[in-house]
Every structure is written in C-alpha cells, then in structure tokens.
TrEMBL record, chain A:
This is Pyruvate dehydrogenase E1 component subunit alpha. It is found in: Mitochondrion matrix. SUPFAM superfamilies: Thiamin diphosphate-binding fold (THDP-binding) (SSF52518). The gene is PDHA1. It comes from Phascolarctos cinereus. GO terms for cellular component: mitochondrial matrix. One of its GO terms (molecular function) is pyruvate dehydrogenase (acetyl-transferring) activity. Its EC number is 1.2.4.1.
UniProtKB/TrEMBL annotation, chain B:
This is 3-methyl-2-oxobutanoate dehydrogenase (2-methylpropanoyl-transferring). The keyword Oxidoreductase applies. It catalyses: N(6)-[(R)-lipoyl]-L-lysyl-[protein] + 3-methyl-2-oxobutanoate + H(+) = N(6)-[(R)-S(8)-2-methylpropanoyldihydrolipoyl]-L-lysyl-[protein] + CO2. Keywords: Oxidoreductase. One of its GO terms (biological process) is branched-chain amino acid catabolic process. One of its GO terms (molecular function) is branched-chain 2-oxo acid dehydrogenase activity. It is an enzyme of class 1 (oxidoreductase).
Length: 390, 349
C-alpha cells in the first residue's frame, strides 16, 4: 500500500513537472531520417519516372507538418470567420489539398515562380506570407497583403502572382512568366496551376502550344479535386486523364494527398524544365473537404460518405503524421505541441484580422493607373472625385 | 449613380442639385436588407464619404390581368416560366450552359431538364467561347439556342464569337444564313458582395456592335415578356438579368406566354421638370429618387425604363426631353464610355 502510494505520488509529481518531461522527450532518440515508398506515378511521353522512394528527414517532416497544419487551421478559421460574417464575399477553401501546396513548395526554390487560380490561400502561405496578412486580406483590412482591396481571390507575394478570379485566365500568364524566366536565364521555372474545371478552357491549350513550341520552363499543374464547382470530372471532360491533355507535352499523374509523392514529382519535373527540354504537365489527384466556395455546402453533388472516406483514409496531414510517428521521426506529443503552437498563431492572426481597421475611403481610387502626379478619378457620379495615387 | 446632365439654365442648376440632394438623402436613409450598412462620415461630411452596401427598394408594377391568370413569382421563377413556355412551344428549343441541368446557380432552369429531357437541357463544360460558338452553330442550323453564361463578367472569352461571328452572320452571308435563333442569358449587375468578377454590367461593350440586340429587364413581369420576345426575335439577343433582383423582386406574373416588344422604352411616371432614364436595377433607384424629389423639392420627374439597350428607343427619350428640357441618366457601369454617353450625345444633337 505504501509502495503504491509512493509510486502514485511519484507519478503525480512527475506529471506536474512539465519542463522535466520535455527534457525527457528531447533526450529520446529520434531517427534522423527515414525512407518511404511512394506511389508510382503514371507518365505520358516520358521514358524516366519520378522515384518511387523518398527520404524524409526529421527536420523536413516537422516543417511540412507545421506548414500543412497551419494551412489547415487557417482555412478552418476562415470558414469560422465567414460564418460569423466577418469575412464577406467569396471564399474558396483549400483544406484537404495541403499536400499539394506543401509538396510543390518543397520541390522548388523560393526564386521560382508560382501562379494559381482562386483557391489560393495555401499557396500564399507557402510562398512566404504570414497568416495574419492572409486573414486580414480576407477580412478586407488594411493589414492585408493586398491592402484589403483584393480579398480572397487576389493575394500576391514575392514570386507568387496570385490569386486569379477568372477561370483559366492565369494559364497563359504562367506561360508568359516562364518565357521571362527563360529570357532572364537565371535557371528559374514557373509553376502554373489550374483546376479540373479550368482544364476545359480553350486558352489553356493555347498556352500549351506556345510553351511547347518555345520550350518554356513551365510546369502546368492540374489540381484535380474531382469536382469543378458541382460538376464531377466525368460529366465535364471527354478525357479525365488530365496529365495526358497536353498531348505533345509530357505528363505525370501524381497522388496529390501524399506530400512526399508531390515533392518528388515536382523535383523531377523541375529538373526536366530547368534542363531546357520544355514544359511538363503534372496532374495532382487531390480532394477538397469544403464545397467549391463558402456558399456551396459541398454535399449536393457528392456524398458525405465519400468526404468521410477521404478524410479517414487519405488525409494528407494524417498520412504524414502516421509516417513520422511510425518511423520514429517524431512523437505524438511533439506533433501535438506543434498543433498547439499553430492554433495560437492562427488565433492571434484572427484577432488581428478582426481588429485591424478597414482601408480608408481615400484609397478607393488608388493604383488604377501608374501615373505621376496623382490624378482624379470620377466616382459614382461626376461630382464625387477620388484621388488616384500610384 | 452615374449622371450626364444636359442644358444649363439657372433652374437646371437647382434641379440638378435637388436630384443629387434627393439621392444623398436616399443614401442616408439606409435600411439595407442586403448587408451591413457601413458608413464612414468624413470631416467634410460630403456625400462622397458615405459608403454603403447596395440597397434599394424594389417597386413592383400593379398586376397586369390582360394576359390571363397570374402567379406570384420572383425574377428567377419568371425566367423559368419563360423558358418553360419556350420549350413547350418550340420543339427545337434547347437550353445549355454551365450547371443549368440541376437548375442553375441562380435556379433559373429548375425542373426543366426533368420536364423536357436531357437532350434539351444540358450542361456544357467550363468554356464560354465554346458555349457561344456552339450556340451560334445550333442557331445557324435552324434550332432555337438559349445559352447561359454563368455571370456577365465571364462573357468576355465569348466576346469574339458574339461580335465577329453572331452579329455579322446575316450581313456577311447576304441573308443566306443567320443565327437569329440564338439568345444568350447572363446574370448582370451589382449584388453587394460580388466585387470585381460577379458584378459587371458589360452592355456598353456590346452596344458598340451592330447586329445584336441587348435587353435588360427591371422586374419579373418585364423579364418574362422580354425574354420571350428575345427568343422569338430573329436576331441574336443578349438578355442580361439583374442578379440582385432574382430573389428580391416579387410580382404577379402571367403563367401563359406573353410578349413585350423590344426597342420600346416605357415611361413609368410622367413629369415636367426633368427626365430620368435607367435600366435594370437602377430603375427602382431612380423611382425612389423621383418620389423624394417631388416630396422634398417639388421637382416633377419623368421616369423612363429604357429596357432595350440596343437598338434603343430614341424617340421616346427625345420626346420626353423635348418636353422637360433636362435629362439625367443613371447606370451601374463605369461612366466613361458607358451607355449614358451614347444617350446623352444623341439627345444633344
């Protein structure tokens, strides 16, 4: 009995001494890295393939986990803020697709260029902007990355060209950025992303042709989340092999829920483009948990069971976590700590985004043209004038 | 409100100030059903500094019994009714566009696929240029094509097809071929939260193109009659539906088909001091302005709904201006090169 009391008291005192506990964790031996088998990618017009094994170091794993968890929590916070009507307008959420933005970023350099469509919050973060600026842009405040004037669909960062509202319009732009990369000769490439719905737009094929003709260092990436708004891919496309749609452009089909698979495929494609062989097409097979936008419940064209199945079997964060824990790259507690950190960061950012003032009305006319000196812009009637400064 | 003023007598100065004052008072009154009213008064307290989410009061017309039994419908229901009548009457009529099969993002085509079959009401992939090009082909071959562009903001990839192919078909083939059976429908205008790409009013771009007709209704009763006329009309027509009115505008609308003639403007309210012209949602705004001007300033306004932008009813507007001597036009689109400039320059000549 006394022995049991002693054990119990030791356990209780042990539980209250948190720092000591943390020291214990750090002292535990983690592996430095581990090698994983990843899914083989289908290829089109290619002799080589991306590798089927990937090495993940502990440091990388923790980094990817933190970034993906941040994107996930940021999107969920945006959902919450939208339902509270603090965010208005349009909001297209990226949760479920975190492995795509993380894997792509891991496969390229910060000096490479990225352009995507409107489901852009994840990329805005991986391209380097802090969460508070992203959330403040969503709430339309002056602390936002586009000064509160762009909103959800128009977020930009260094070497990240947005954030584009019109479906498919960003793809020829991406080909143009790739042309500039080739012209400048700094060994940079451009990732041009679009969705399965946009894959049927005519201008995409125009961009394919130009990129292939002039051997532009452009990776065209189709984020296939199986639904273009409410239309499933089978009902929209004559060929759902999006990685083959570039025809004369070589393509790879990648498991977009596995961050390592995306990373290896991106490295492979980036090396191909950098060597001057021309563009490549990547299809990332991924899934979004939310509907198309906040006004779409997301269950009228797909079943809740399907969403649940993907969440339980292929969730990208869960996959990474399981891999790391099972291969002794990290412990569950450590990852939980990261979760807590991330939650706090998001809370702070949401606080900022809610409290920051809106841009002043004087700035309504700014940045229409680039013109010196400032000029006047007519408002809603000819007696209202706004100053336009650029 | 965009405005183009004509004539500058001393009285006009007072009238102009008066109508602007009425507009300012209307803005001040607030009362938004459509979102928060966020108002930032500046130190100067100028009307320019008032910011507000879109708000207006829909003015329904009195029930029109000359076309038979009526039913309470909002704008999207009246569109559905018009399309239903069309498909019933014309066996070659087909409806296509993005997401029209399940009913459309604004519910304008609800129930039609079940009623008429999937070969008559079908979805297209995401390709506006393809949709309109395809529609021109369908119409040239003699069928009635009713194409939907999901938002007027997305109509620009199809601009070439409309301006270069559809509008000029009859002319360039010497009347051998035409695509008169084509009607393009698109939600149009501001809705409060649409921002850059869900709020545009592109009628001015198309007004520059002979060969097509452009129509903008102000209410469910008008919409059904005008849409049926567009579908019947032997010229390619673009029918812009003010999206903010889809649910907000409710009226008694006849169940049977009826036709409201195109290119005829309607004088909604007679007046003697100034003519106010608008189309679509703005008609309701200027009606309110007209009543405020009368009430607070004793200014009698003649209110005209233009309805058809191209070809527009020059006679009605000019006759009205000849009577009142003053004209103010209000539209949502940008001022420069907006359709008001066409109206005001024609009236001044």
């Amino acid at each position: 009995m006394r022995k049991m009391l002693a054990i119990v008291s030791r356990v209780l005192t042990g539980a209250s001494q948190k720092p000591a506990g943390r020291v214990l964790l750090a002292a535990r031996n983690f592996a430095n890295d581990a090698s994983f088998d990843i899914k083989k990618c289908d290829v089109h017009r290619l002799e080589d393939e991306p590798p089927t094994t990937a090495v993940l170091t502990r440091e990388e794993g923790l980094k990817y986990y933190k970034i993906m968890q941040t994107v996930r929590r940021m999107e969920l916070k945006a959902d919450q803020l939208y339902k509270q009507k603090i965010i208005r307008g349009f909001c297209h959420l990226y949760d479920g697709q975190e492995a795509c933005c993380m894997g792509l970023e891991a496969g390229i350099n910060p000096t490479d260029h990225v352009i995507t469509a409107y489901r852009a919050h994840g990329f805005t973060y991986t391209r380097g902007l802090p969460v508070r600026e992203i959330l403040a842009e969503l709430t339309g405040r002056r602390g936002g990355c586009a000064k509160g004037k762009g909103g959800s669909m128009h977020m930009y960062a260094k070497n990240f060209y947005g954030g584009n509202g019109i479906v498919g319009a960003q793809v020829p732009l991406g080909a143009g950025i790739a042309l500039a990369c080739k012209y400048n000769g700094k060994d940079e490439i451009c990732l041009t992303l679009y969705g399965d719905g946009a894959a049927n737009q005519g201008q995409i094929f125009e961009a394919y042709n130009m990129a292939a003709l002039w051997k532009l260092p452009c990776i065209f990436i189709c984020e296939n989340n199986r639904y273009g708004m409410g239309t499933s891919v089978e009902r929209a496309a004559a060929s759902t092999d999006y990685y083959k749609r570039g025809d004369f452009i070589p393509g790879i089909r990648v498991d977009g829920m596995d961050v390592l698979c995306v990373r290896e495929a991106t490295k492979f494609a980036a090396a191909y483009c950098r060597s001057g062989k021309g563009p490549m097409l990547m299809e990332l097979q991924t899934y979004r948990y939310h509907g198309h936008s906040m006004s779409d419940p997301g269950v009228s064209y797909r079943t809740r069971e399907e969403i649940q199945e993907v969440r339980s079997k292929s969730d990208p964060i869960m996959l990474l976590k399981d891999r790391m824990v099972n291969n002794n790259l990290a412990s569950v507690e450590e990852l939980k700590e990261i979760d807590v950190e991330v939650r706090k960061e998001i809370e702070d950012a949401a606080q900022f985004a809610t409290a920051d003032p809106e841009p002043p009305l004087e700035e309504l006319g700014y940045h229409i043209y680039s013109r010196e000196p400032p000029f006047e812009v007519r408002g809603a009637n000819q007696w209202i004038k706004y100053k336009s400064v650029s | 409100m965009a405005a183009a003023a004509v004539a500058s007598t001393a009285r006009w100065g007072r009238v102009r100030a008066g109508v602007m004052e009425a507009a300012r008072l209307r803005c001040q009154r607030g009362g938004s059903r459509l979102g928060r009213l966020s108002v930032l008064p500046s130190a100067a307290g100028d009307v320019a500094q008032w910011r507000h989410v879109a708000h207006f009061t829909f003015h329904p017309d009195p029930e029109n019994r000359q076309y038979g039994q009526t039913q309470k419908m909002n704008l999207f229901q009246s569109i559905t009714s018009a399309l239903d009548n069309s498909l019933a009457k014309d066996p070659t009529a087909v409806i296509f566009g993005e997401d029209v099969a399940f009913g459309g993002v604004f519910r304008c085509t609800v129930g039609l696929r079940d009623k008429y079959g999937k070969d008559r009401v079908f979805n297209t992939p995401l390709c506006e240029q393809g949709i309109v090009g395809f529609g021109i082909g369908v119409a040239v071959n003699g069928a009635t094509a009713i194409a939907e562009i999901q938002f007027a903001d997305y109509i620009f990839p199809a601009f070439d097809q409309i301006v270069n192919e559809a509008a000029k078909y009859r002319y360039r083939s010497g009347d051998l071929f035409n695509c008169g059976g084509l009607t393009i429908r698109a939600p149009w205008g501001c809705v409060g939260h649409g921002a850059l790409y869900h709020s545009q009013c592109p009628e001015a771009f198309f007004a520059h193109c002979p060969g097509i007709k452009i129509v903008v209704p102000r209410s469910p009763f008008q919409a059904k009659g005008l849409l049926l006329s567009c579908i019947e009309d032997k010229n390619p027509c673009i029918f812009f539906e003010p999206k903010i009115l889809y649910r907000a505008a409710v009226e008694q609308v006849p169940v049977e088909p009826y036709y409201i003639p195109l290119s005829q403007a309607e004088v909604l309210q007679e007046g003697s001091d100034v003519t106010l012209v608008a189309w679509g949602t703005q008609v309701h705004v200027i009606r309110e302005v007209a009543s405020m001007a009368q009430e607070k300033l004793g200014v009698s306004c003649e209110v005209i709904d233009l309805k058809t932008i191209l070809p527009w009813d020059i006679d009605t507007v000019c006759k009205s201006v000849a009577k009142t001597g003053r004209l103010m036009i209000s539209h949502e689109a940008p001022l420069t090169g907006g359709f008001a400039s066409e109206i005001s320059s024609t009236v001044q000549v």
